[in-house]
Amino acid sequence: MKTLVIGASKGLGKALMQGLGNPGDTLIGVARAIPPHVPVIAGIDTRWIEADLAHPAAAVATITEAAADQGIDTLIYNLGIWEPLAFDFLDDQDAQIETMIGCNITATILLIKRLLPLLLQSQHPRILLTGSTSGLPRSGRPEVTFGASKFALQGIADALREGYRDRRLGVTCLNLGYLNTEDGLEVPVADAAQRGEGALIPVHDVVQVVRMVLSLSPASFVRELSLPAILDDRF
Fold first, then answer.
1. How far is Cα of residue 13 from the mean position of the Cα atoms in its chain?
2. Which of 38, 86, 107, 139 has the most C-beta neighbours closer than 10 Å?
């Protein structure tokens, strides 16, 4: 299986690059800069593409060209810029809002459009979009632009399912709560789970969920999954 992970150099993306794949698989990470210390995972072909999705058109062209010869079975779009002043919408700068929309929505749509012909050549094509519980209806969060961009992922996923159901394209939207991205997979999950005292989700848990989604047969798919922290009182 060949999996392309967008936003792969740190945080959850780094954990996905370290925790996904089985011997014989290919993992392709996309990042603004290739991380200096890339772990070698036995039996897994790990590759990297440098692209900055804050500049959607150029990044999409770079990624598409690099992926064209390799082919892909799964696209994991794990990227989302947060407002610098998330709790005071009136203080957000217009340029910042445009950049967020470009990276979180425009780049997502453009990249899927360009990669979809490659994905549909797979016997088991899948797209995973990492959304947020902040993008769910009545989430109780005040981040206007971020929430809107993550809510948009629901519409993207729904339309793709309907448009390519006959091609057996499985599209999953993962609505994630606040993550503990300080503790990577090298930290025992029991220790990582202590950070935040129940208000943060270890990246280990997300990797486990993604592995489950990718292990399903072509006869089924996970439509949507919400993963809040255990003490998130919004859920």
1. 7
2. 107
